[in-house]
Task: inverse folding
């Protein structure tokens, strides 16, 4: 399944989210049409996406909610605990640290790093803030596969280099900068300024009188 299209891969977690919600309200079956309505996706696309999981559902019956959720959980490796370290303990980091949904997706934040002497040694949510200078060694010693960057832009590349030296396999980057990494490192960029620009454009398009 390594050739699964990226747009499909991005939709699979959304299907999983809706299936979890369906289970929470006691729903046992769900159709591609229902999933499509919930996510504003054509039902044909839903069936095509889920076809990569070899779960075709049953015509006229739909998908077994619990079974499909379990299939997605296994495919996305959500049940496999994955340790992560975060660098740059500011306001955004504080929100991420206290976000309750990470564990549902197998992410366990285990280490925090910052270069502010006033923060080093303090604790947030039971996690001690360590010095950035210790980042590479501590990641390597604890075999941390995921790095999260919430530093200012000017510090992001240096932190990235330390994370790569520490052996991370993936980086979740919130800094508005394109990181330089080896080809073997997978990076997800979460640039809030880009999303805001798109939001601004869409809002302006819907209100031409304001232009």
Result:
């Amino acid at each position: 399944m390594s050739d699964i299209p990226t747009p499909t891969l991005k939709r699979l977690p959304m299907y999983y989210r809706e299936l979890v919600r369906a289970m929470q309200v006691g729903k046992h079956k769900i159709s591609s049409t229902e999933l499509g309505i919930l996510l504003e996706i054509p039902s044909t696309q839903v069936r095509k996406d889920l076809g990569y999981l070899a779960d075709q559902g049953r015509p006229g019956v739909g998908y077994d909610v619990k079974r499909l959720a379990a299939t997605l959980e296994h495919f996305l490796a959500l049940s496999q605990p994955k340790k992560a370290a975060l660098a740059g303990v500011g306001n955004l980091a504080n929100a991420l640290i206290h976000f309750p949904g990470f564990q549902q997706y197998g992410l366990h934040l285990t280490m925090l790093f910052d270069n502010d002497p006033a923060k080093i040694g303090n604790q947030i949510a039971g996690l001690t803030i360590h010095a950035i200078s210790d980042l590479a060694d501590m990641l390597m010693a604890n075999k941390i596969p995921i790095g999260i960057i919430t530093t200012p832009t000017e510090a992001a590349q240096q932190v990235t280099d330390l994370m790569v030296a520490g052996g991370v396999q993936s980086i979740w980057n919130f800094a508005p900068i394109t990181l330089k990494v080896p080809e073997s490192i997978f990076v997800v960029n979460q640039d809030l300024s880009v999303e805001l620009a798109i939001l601004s454009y869409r809002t302006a398009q819907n209100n031409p009188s304001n232009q």
Q: What stands out?
A: The CA atoms of residues 137 and 166 lie 6 Å apart. The first strand starts at residue 29 and ends at 30. The first helix runs from residue 6 to 24.
